[in-house]
Design a protein that fits this description.
heterodimer, A: alpha+beta, Uridine Diphospho-n-acetylenolpyruvylglucosamine Reductase, domain 2, Uridine Diphospho-n-acetylenolpyruvylglucosamine Reductase, domain 3, Enolase-like, domain 1, 3 domains, five-stranded antiparallel β-sheet, four-stranded antiparallel β-sheet, 14 strands, B: Aldehyde Oxidoreductase, domain 3, seven-stranded mixed β-sheet, 28% helix, globular, disordered N terminus
Chain lengths: 271, 773
C-alpha cells in the first residue's frame, strides 16, 4: 500500500499546469481530489512519474449561471455540487447524483472533473453528465475546445482528452426542476453502483452497463414516440454489454437497467 | 425504530442497595480512545524499537505453483536493503499449525518449493525505512510453474490434485468415520434434506496484523503483537523459535479488533522475532490491507448436508448433519471448529436421534480459523435451516415448530444426544419473548396483505432459537488485585480485552466488594512478565472466567485485610465486615467505632492477592431473534427492517457493555446473512481482497436493534455469568436468512444460501418463477 516513488508539482495556475503537461507528456498525471488515482497507485497499478496537483486551483472551483447553461469549474468538489443553491434550482439532477458518490470524506475530496476524466463506467457523474447533454471544455497550450459528453468517453477508462489537455469546465444546460431522477442500485450505501440510471428530460444515462457510460437510446426513442414508461423502460438494456463481477451478471444488470429506468422515469414524470 | 430496552439495575444483580452491579457505568477506556487515540503495535514509539528495520514480505500471486527459482540479487542492491531472505536462510523447522493434522502439512516460513495460496510468503526483505520495502520486494524475481488449483472442497475430497503429495491426501481430519445408518430416518413420517453453504468470511479487523521484536543483551526477546492472548502467542512463538517461553516477553499494545482471527500467534510473528535475532536489530512489521485480506485467517466455510425427520404434528425425531469444512492451504484452528459444530448440532432442541460427521480438507485458499462464534454459528444456522425446511414441509408455523421441539425448562441440566451438558435455559420463554416483542401475529398479517396486493416489495419474518457454548475448553483464569497506600487499586488479568470493556467491568467487580470507586481502579493485561499465565479473550470466556477471578480475588483480599485489621481494631475476624462506603474494614454492628481503610492497611504492608478461578465447565447462553426483512422482488435487494433479540447470558454486569457486545454481534450476523463472502475464482485468485469488494456493512445497512432482556443465571459460577460476545452473531444470521427465504416462500422458495446478496436473491426468484411457469 505504498506507491512507487513520484515527483509532485502543485502549479498555482491552469497555465502552469498546462506547461507541466506539455513538458512531461505521458509521464505526468493530473490529480485533483486523488480519490481515484491514489488507490490505484497504492496498489501499484499506476506509477506516474509526475503528479500535477490541480486540486487547490481556485480558478477551477466555481458554479455559475452562464446564459442557458450552468458552468462548473473542473476542480469543483462533489460536496460543493451537492450543496450548490444554483444547481438545486437550475440542474437539480447533479446535486442528487453527487450526493450518492462514496461517503462524505470522498465527496469533500473528489471533483467533478476528476470523475469525468477518470472515465470509470461505474462512476455516477459521467452518466449524469451524459444524460444532461453537457459539454466538456478542454484546454491545452494549443487552445480550448468543447467536446459534447456524447463523444467524450471512448473506451473503458479512456476519454477524448489528449495528454496535454486539462478539463477546465463542464457546461450543463439549465433543466429546471422538471423530469429528472437518479436511481442508484448498490449493495451498500457507499459502494459503486451495480447499475444506476439518470433520467432528465426524456434522456436516460446508464451507469456500469458497458465499458463507458451509456445512453439508453432505444428507451429515449420510445419515449419520443410517446410510448408508455413501462414499454420504454423495457428497452433500457438494448444494445448494452454489461460487465460481470461478484455483484452481478450481465443478465442481472440488464434486469436492473430495466427496473431502475422504469422507476426513474416514473419519479421524473411525477416532478 | 431504535427501541432499546433501557434497564436500570437488572433483576439478577442490582437488588442490593447501592450496588454498582447491573448499572450502566460509562466505559473508563473511552476518554483516551476518543481524545489521544489508541496506541496500536504500529504506533509504538517505544525506545527499545528505535533504529528498527522494516520487514516486507514478498507474497505469492499464484494459488498453487511449483517454485522453479527465486532471484534476490537485484533486490539486495535496492536502496536501504539490509537483507533479503528466502526459506533457505531460515534455520527453523517449518511448523505444523494444527497439531492434529497430518505431519506433512507444515507451513514453510518462506515457501521454497511450492506455494499453496495467494498471499503465501516466499521472501522477506528488511529495509532501513518502511517505504523502501515494497520497492525492493518488487525486484525479487520468483519463477512459478502453475499447478491446478484446488478451490472447491468436493474437488479436494477427490484427492486428484494434492496440495501435499507426501501426505497422500487432501483430507486433514475426519470426525466420526462411522458410515451413516441407512435406517436412521425409518420411523419418520416426513424427511427433508438439503445441501447448504455456510460461507467463508473475513474477520476484517480494522487494525491489520502487526508485530515488532527486539532482543536484549540478556538474550530475551521483547515481542509486541496485535493479538487476543499474549500468553498463548508467547508459547507458540517460543516453540517455533526453539527457545524457552521465559525468554520471550510478549506485550500487547491496544488491539484494533480480533473477532477470533487474532487468537494464537501468526507465523509472521516468529519471522519478525527471528529476523530481529538474525540481524541484531529491532524489526517491525505491519501488513497492508491487501495482505490482510489474503494473509489473515478467515472464518466459517462449511458445506453442510442437513437432513431432518419427524411427524406431521411438528415433532422432530431425527437430525443429521454432514459437514465438509475447508481448512485452507495450511491446517490451523479451522480444523478443530467442526468439533464445536458437532457438539452444538441439535441446538436448543430435544431430539431423540442426532447424528453428525465432519471431514476437513485443505484447498489452495487462505487458512481458516476462529471467527466470532467459531463453529457454533455453523451449527445454529444448519439446525435453524432444517427447522424451517421441516416446518414448510408439514405446513406449520416455523415459530410453533421450534416451541414444540425445544428442551423443556425442567430438564436442566440437560445432556444432549451428543453428550453435552447444557447448564441452564428457558428456550421456549426466549422464543415467546421475541415473538411478543415483535408482535409476530401482526407481522404475519402485514405480510399477508402485501402478498395479496402482489407488491414488488415483500416482507419476510425469520425466527431463530439458539444455544451456544461460552468459555468452552478454557475454564481457568487468574487475577490479582492490589490496593495501594493512596487508596487506588491495580488489577492484573489474564484476559485480553480489545474493545470489550474489561477495564470498566473488572473495576466494577472489585469496586462492588471493596468499595473503592471504579475511577481509582486500574486494570492491566497483556504483558507476559506481569501475567505469565492467562487464557486471553476468545470464545466469550472473559467475564465468566476472568471476571469471576477478579470477584474471587476481591473476596480473598477482604479476607487478608480482615486478618490484618483484626489486630489493629482488636476484634476477631468474624466480627469484621467491609464498610464499602469508605473502602474500609469495620467492626460489625458498631457504628462510630474505629475502622481501618484498605489504603491504611496497604501502607503497613503490601496488600495484594493473586488467585486462580476454575469454573470447570463451559456455560450455555441462549436466546431467540426475530428479524423482519423487506425484499425487493424486482431487484433482489434485501433490507433488514427490524430485529428483536433476546440474548440470555445470565445476569448483566453492565448493560452498556453487554448491549455493545450484542450490537456488534448482531451486526456481524446480519453481515454474514446478507453481504459478506470471501470469494476465490477457480484458479484460487481472491476476488474480494479489498474493502471495495468485500461486503462488510456500514451503519447504513443496519437497522437499530431492539434488545429484549432475559437473565437466567448459570450454576457454574457464583455470579451466574455466561458469555455474551458471540451470541448476537449466532442468533441474528439464521433469523435474517430465514426472513429472506420467508419473504419469498409464496413463490415456492425454500432456501437461499448466505449471503443473500441482491444477485443471489434475484436469481432464486427467476428460478422459482421459471419452475412455476
Amino acid at each position: 500500500m505504498i506507491p512507487v516513488g513520484f515527483e509532485y508539482a502543485r502549479p498555482d495556475s491552469v497555465d502552469g499546469a498546462l506547461a507541466l503537461l506539455a513538458e512531461h507528456g505521458d509521464e505526468a498525471t493530473i490529480m485533483a481530489g486523488g480519490h481515484s488515482l491514489l488507490p490505484v497507485m497504492k496498489l501499484r497499478l499506476a506509477a506516474p512519474e509526475l503528479i500535477v496537483d490541480i486540486g487547490r486551483l481556485r480558478e477551477l472551483n466555481y458554479i455559475r449561471v452562464d446564459g442557458d447553461e450552468v458552468a462548473i469549474g473542473a476542480a469543483t468538489r462533489h460536496h460543493d455540487v451537492e450543496v450548490s443553491d444554483v444547481l438545486a434550482t437550475e440542474v437539480p439532477l447533479l446535486p442528487a447524483v453527487a450526493r450518492t458518490v462514496g461517503d462524505p470524506q470522498v465527496r469533500h475530496r473528489g471533483t467533478i472533473g476528476g470523475s469525468l476524466a477518470h472515465g470509470d463506467p461505474a462512476s455516477d457523474l459521467p452518466a449524469a453528465v451524459l444524460a444532461l447533454d453537457a459539454t466538456i471544455v478542454l484546454r491545452s497550450p494549443r487552445g480550448e475546445r468543447k467536446v459534447p459528453a456524447t463523444e467524450f468517453w471512448t473506451a473503458v477508462f479512456t476519454t477524448a482528452k489528449e495528454p496535454d489537455e486539462l478539463i477546465v469546465e463542464i457546461r450543463v444546460p439549465r433543466t429546471g426542476n422538471a423530469g429528472w431522477a437518479y436511481e442508484k442500485f448498490t449493495r451498500r450505501a457507499n459502494d459503486w453502483a451495480i447499475v444506476a440510471v439518470a433520467v432528465v428530460d426524456g434522456r436516460v444515462g446508464l451507469v456500469n452497463m458497458g465499458s463507458t457510460p451509456l445512453r439508453a437510446s432505444a428507451t429515449e426513442a420510445a419515449l419520443a414516440e410517446g410510448r408508455s414508461i413501462a414499454d420504454a423502460a423495457a428497452l433500457a438494456a438494448e444494445g448494452t454489454e454489461p460487465p460481470t463481477d461478484t455483484a452481478g451478471t450481465p443478465d442481472y444488470r440488464r434486469n436492473l437497467a430495466r427496473v431502475l429506468t422504469r422507476r426513474a422515469l416514473e419519479t421524473a414524470a411525477g416532478r | 425504530m431504535g427501541r432499546l430496552t433501557v434497564a436500570g439495575p437488572t433483576a439478577g444483580l442490582g437488588s442490593k442497595s447501592m450496588s454498582i452491579m447491573g448499572t450502566r457505568v460509562v466505559r473508563v477506556e473511552d476518554p483516551v480512545f476518543l481524545t489521544r487515540g489508541a496506541t496500536y503495535t504500529d504506533d509504538l514509539t517505544d525506545e527499545r524499537l528505535s533504529g528498527a528495520l522494516h520487514l516486507t514480505l514478498v507474497r505469492s500471486p499464484i494459488a498453487h505453483a511449483t517454485i522453479t527459482s527465486i532471484d534476490v540479487e537485484a533486490a539486495r542492491e535496492a536502496p536501504g536493503v539490509v537483507a533479503v531472505l528466502t526459506g533457505a536462510d531460515i534455520d527453523l523447522e517449518a511448523p505444523l499449525l494444527f497439531a492434529g493434522a497430518p505431519k506433512q502439512m507444515v507451513r514453510p516460513w518462506l515457501a521454497t518449493e511450492r506455494v499453496r495460496f495467494v498471499g503465501e510468503p516466499v521472501a522477506a526483505v528488511l529495509t532501513e525505512e518502511r517505504y523502501q520495502g515494497p520497492d525492493a520486494a518488487e525486484l525479487v524475481d520468483v519463477d512459478y510453474e502453475p499447478l491446478p488449483a484446488v478451490v472447491d472442497v468436493r474437488e479436494a475430497l477427490k484427492d486428484e490434485n494434492l496440495l501435499f503429495p507426501d501426505a497422500g491426501t487432501n483430507t486433514c481430519s475426519v470426525y466420526n468415520a462411522e458410515p451413516p445408518d441407512p435406517d436412521f430416518f425409518a420411523d419418520c413420517e416426513v424427511v427433508v434434506t438439503r445441501e447448504i453453504v455456510n460461507q467463508r468470511v473475513a474477520a476484517a479487523s480494522l487494525e491489520t496484523r502487526a508485530a515488532s521484536a527486539v532482543w536484549g543483551d540478556d538474550g530475551r526477546c521483547t515481542l509486541f503483537v496485535s493479538n487476543q492472548n499474549a500468553q498463548g502467542a508467547r508459547d507458540e512463538v517460543a516453540g517455533w523459535l526453539g527457545v524457552d517461553p521465559k525468554s520471550i516477553h510478549v506485550i500487547l499494545p491496544d488491539v484494533g479488533g480480533g473477532f477470533g482471527a487474532k487468537i494464537g500467534a501468526d507465523p509472521e510473528f516468529a519471522l519478525v522475532a527471528w529476523t530481529a535475532r538474525h540481524t541484531g536489530r529491532p524489526v517491525r512489521w505491519s501488513e497492508s490491507r491487501s495482505e490482510n485480506m489474503t494473509g489473515m485467517v478467515q472464518g466459517r466455510d462449511q458445506r453442510q448436508t442437513i437432513t431432518i425427520g419427524g411427524s406431521r404434528d411438528g415433532r422432530v425425531k431425527a437430525y443429521r448433519l454432514d459437514v465438509i469444512a475447508d481448512a485452507g492451504a495450511y491446517p490451523r484452528l479451522g480444523v478443530f471448529l467442526p468439533v464445536f459444530t458437532r457438539m452444538m448440532a441439535p441446538g436448543t432442541y430435544d431430539i431423540e436421534k442426532v447424528d453428525s460427521r465432519a471431514t476437513v480438507v485443505v484447498t489452495n485458499t487462505t487458512s481458516t480459523a476462529a471467527y466470532r462464534g467459531a463453529g457454533r454459528p455453523e451449527a445454529t444456522s444448519a439446525i435453524e435451516r432444517a427447522m424451517d425446511l421441516f416446518a414448510a414441509e408439514i405446513g406449520m408455523d416455523p415459530a410453533e415448530v421450534r416451541k414444540i421441539n425445544v428442551v423443556a425448562p425442567e430438564k436442566f441440566p440437560f445432556t444432549t444426544k451428543g453428550g453435552v451438558e447444557y447448564d441452564s435455559g428457558e428456550y421456549a420463554k426466549a422464543i415467546d419473548l421475541a415473538l411478543e416483542a415483535s408482535d409476530y401475529a401482526t407481522l404475519r398479517e402485514v405480510q399477508k396483505a402485501r402478498r395479496e396486493r402482489g407488491d414488488a416489495k415483500q416482507i419476510g419474518i425469520g425466527v431463530s432459537s439458539y444455544v451456544e457454548i461460552t468459555g468452552g475448553g478454557a475454564f481457568v483464569e487468574n487475577a490479582s488485585v492490589e490496593v495501594h497506600p493512596d487508596g487506588t487499586a491495580l488489577i492484573w488479568t489474564g484476559t485480553s480485552p480489545h474493545g470489550q470493556g474489561h477495564a470498566t467491568a473488572w473495576a466494577m467487580l472489585a469496586s462492588e466488594q471493596l468499595g473503592i470507586p471504579v475511577e481509582k481502579i486500574t486494570v492491566r493485561h497483556g504483558d507476559t512478565d506481569h501475567v505469565p499465565e492467562g487464557g486471553g479473550t476468545m470464545g466469550s470466556r472473559s467475564l465468566q472466567t476472568g471476571g469471576v477471578a477478579v470477584h474471587q480475588a476481591s473476596l480473598e483480599l477482604i479476607d487478608l485485610a480482615k486478618q490484618r485489621a483484626a489486630e489493629i481494631l482488636e476484634a476477631s475476624v468474624e466480627d469484621l465486615e467491609v464498610d464499602t462506603a469508605n473502602a474500609a474494614i469495620a467492626v460489625r454492628g458498631a457504628p462510630g467505632s474505629p475502622t481501618v481503610t484498605f489504603a491504611q492497611l496497604a501502607e503497613r504492608d503490601e496488600l495484594k492477592v493473586k488467585t486462580v478461578w476454575d469454573g470447570k465447565k463451559a456455560t450455555f447462553p441462549f436466546g431467540s431473534h426475530v428479524a423482519v426483512v423487506e425484499v425487493d422482488t424486482e431487484t433482489g435487494k434485501v433490507t433488514v427492517e427490524r430485529i428483536w433479540a433476546v440474548d440470555d447470558a445470565g445476569p448483566v454486569l453492565n448493560p452498556l457493555l453487554c448491549e455493545g457486545q450484542r450490537h456488534g454481534g448482531i451486526a456481524q450476523g446480519i453481515a454474514q446473512a446478507m453481504l459478506e463472502e470471501v470469494v476465490f475464482d477457480p484458479d484460487g485468485q481472491p476476488l474480494t481482497a479489498t474493502f471495495a469488494d468485500y461486503g462488510f456493512p456500514s451503519a447504513a445497512e443496519l437497522p437499530s436493534f431492539d434488545l429484549v432482556t432475559m437473565e437466567t443465571p448459570t450454576p457454574i459460577n457464583p455470579l451466574g455469568f455466561k458469555g455474551i460476545g458471540e451470541a448476537g452473531t449466532i442468533g441474528s444470521a439464521p433469523a435474517v436468512q430465514s426472513a429472506v427465504v420467508d419473504a419469498l416462500s409464496h413463490l415456492g422458495i425454500r432456501h437461499i444460501d448466505m449471503p443473500t446478496t441482491p444477485l443471489r436473491v434475484w436469481e432464486a426468484i427467476q428460478d422459482a418463477v421459471k419452475e412455476d411457469g
